[in-house]
Amino acid sequence: MFQEKGKQTELAVRFSTVAGGRDSSEATRDPRGFAVKFYTEDGNWDLVGNNLAVFFIRDAIKFPDFIHSQKPDPVTFERQVANRVFDFASQTPESMHMFNIVLSPRGIPASYRTQQGFGVNTYKWVNAQGDTKLVKYHWLPKQGVKSWTEEDAGVMQGRELGCHTRDLYEAIDRGDYPEYELHVQLMDDHDHPELDWDPLDDTKVWPENDFPLHKVGKMVLNRKPENFFAESEQIAFGTGVLVDGLDFSDDKMLVGRTFSYSDTQRHRVGPNYLQIPVNQAKNARVATNQRDGAMTYQVDQTGTNPSVNYEPSITGGLVEATTPGQDELGPEITGRLTRKRISQTNDYQQAGERYLLSDQWEKDELVSNWVGNLSQCDKPIQERMLWHLFMCEDELGQRVGEGLGMSADDVRNLEPLATQTLSEAELQRAANLGKNGSRDVTGLVMTHCVPNEHVAVN
Fold first, then answer.
1. Are 220 and 164 in contact (CB under 8 A)?
2. Among 207, 259, 284, 435, who pairs with 43 as Cys (CB 3.0-4.6 Å)?
């Protein structure tokens, strides 16, 4: 797909909200799913990400707990209770980067046409010689990035639930086809002790001044679904749906997602979800030994003897495809398998830099949303979250603290969480809480800090 200039590949895309159900408002504050299925001649490739570049957690085993904290109270069914959300967040400092984005205006895009998209996790590219590069994917909208405030979103929620889908469909109907450029960042595939963050950590981005973007393509949405349920509700994605040359990294969250996504689709859509037209490979021959199960309506291509649905066989069954390229890829790794946190957590630096590199209206909206949410929380949760915010950036902590009627002095004596292992620099920052001064962001080009236009809703 990336081998020749001008190559065109049919694709399908699904934009979605995350925490809400199917009929929830598209104007609510929520990460947006940004998933693309490429129908390549080598089979399907799914690039499954979101519009916010990072995620709340880095360990996939905590994913059910995180989702539970975002979902309705299991007793009262009250939706997204702030005390539940930030109870979890207060004990999960790696989430500070993501919360500083989702509580900013970028957490409510003005349109699907004006949001960025990201693969979020770190993948690999592999060439024919077995050489590998770490890679991150970015979608940049040609329409520019535009967002709403909390007040704008409240007005729109009172008018229409599916405002973003309607906007997308109307643009396609009038021939104003949304376009997104696909860019990649590349990094050598080995350990990087010179970095103070882990390149496989999905709560981090790669500074673009050190790892520049390379344009590799463009997506044009020139057709809308003929039937929403058949082509949008039933489309099924998975991070394990790859083609030759595209591979996984050791990103812990990516490994967990790859195990879970296909199982989720078998439960959500059915065991034969790959037979649904929108999920089929359109430009490649599919031959498997998969048979039967609920809702079977076709059989994949077989060998010369259709009675043989196993491999190997000498009586006319399918023959397993040869593995292309090298059987040894990437760097040689020596170590011991452990169940530990990564050594370079650095949970606060990029969260603070994100705030400093935001436009002033984004900073003001972020502070307002932090205050509005934390005002609904119990005092101990407020105190721990304010401590985290001061660890991110003094100005952010001071402004949120003023809104809560608190200061650094009220939380200065809090000890780091028992689950945290702070670096020397972080320990020094905690000792000087609220008196560290502004972080130096001179020359820093940070993912997601492209200009963001405020679109007011009247």
1. no
2. 284
Q: Which of 221, 253, 196 is nearest to 60 (CA)?
A: 253
215, part of any domain: yes
Least confident segment among 1-5, 65-69, 175-179:
1-5
168-175, long-range: CB < 8 A, 24+ apart: 168/15, 168/111, 168/112, 168/113, 168/221, 168/224, 169/224, 171/113, 172/221, 172/222, 172/223, 172/224, 173/224
Domain that holds residue 150: 11-56+109-279
Residue 275 covered by a domain: yes
Residue 307 — pLDDT band, cuts 50, 70, 90? very high
Distances, alpha carbon 241 to alpha carbons 118, 409, 453, in Å: 17, 51, 35
Contact 347, 203 (CB under 8 A): yes
Question: In Å, what is the CA distance from 37 to each residue of 19, 28, 210?
Answer: 22, 25, 30
Tokens of residue 329, six digits:
């890829």
Q: What is the pLDDT of residues 16-34, one digit of tens each?
A: 998 887 788 999 999 999 9
**Phi/psi zone of residue 282: left (φ > 0), alpha (ψ -120 to 50 degrees), beta?**
alpha
Contact 283, 11 (CB under 8 A): no
Q: Per the domain annotation, does 395 fall within a domain?
A: no
Write down the mean pLDDT value for the chain: 94
pLDDT of residue 325: 67
Cα–Cα nearest to 211, from 142, 143, 138, 132: 138
- pTM score, whole prediction: 0.95
CATH number, domain at 165? 2.40.180.10
Q: CA-to-CA distance for 23 and 25, rounded, in angstroms?
A: 7
Q: Residue 46's closest CA among 6, 97, 85, 1? A: 1
The reply to whether 306 falls in a domain is no
CA 254 from chain center: how many Å?
A: 10
Q: Which two tokens stand for residue 250?
A: 């050791």
Q: How confident is the model at residue 320 (pLDDT cuts 50, 70, 90)?
A: confident
When divided into structural domains, the chain yields a total of 1
- Residue 52 C-beta-side C-alpha neighbours within 13 Å: 30
pLDDT tens digits, residue range 183-192?
999 999 999 9
Q: What is the pLDDT of residue 178?
A: 98
Nearest residue to 41 (alpha-carbon basis) of 202, 298, 192, 245: 245
